[in-house]
Specification:
With 196 residues, the protein is of the alpha/beta class. It has 6 helices and 9 strands; from the N terminus they run βββαββαβαββααβα.
Amino acid sequence: MPIAAVLLAAGASTRLGSPKQMARLGGQTLLERAVRTALEAGLRPIYLVVAAGQEETPCLPDLVQHPEAPTVVTVVNPDTAEGMASSLRAGITAAREAAGVIVLACDQPAVTAEHLRELAEGADEIVASAYAGRKGVPAYFPSSAFAELLKLRGDSGARELLQAARAVKLPGGELDVDTVEDLERAIQIYSHPLSK
């Protein structure tokens, strides 16, 4: 059974001042970049978690969306005010039949398909990404961890679960696009459309 992706894209982007999902980097939006990377890694389907009112968030127009087996499934999180845990719960609930999921955000341009594959390769345990002296997403969660993810509350996400996890280094993972300055830095580093 393929490993699914839970792509968190329900944030309010208050520090950036506009939806970060639609910020452009290397000829594509951050959302498109994240979806393409997940697809290249072989993750299927991709559960795209968005806030209420964002249901029409444009995905990749050139993806074939077969009605019986869609590649990207939009999941609406009606409780975004609670924080990241609510988006994780919405994504995991949608992906409950998967053997495992990789949880990722759309604002980390350093993430590559190779890194995502390495997180899940032969794993039957939680595997985090390591950068800037900490562990975080993207992270792999086997189905045995879903019950714990569904218990999460608040804005800390799965931080506590990841602290004890094995980790794979993600060079550049500390850059996430939260501010205009972050976006400018990302554009300088990843300006080419094929940047990985």
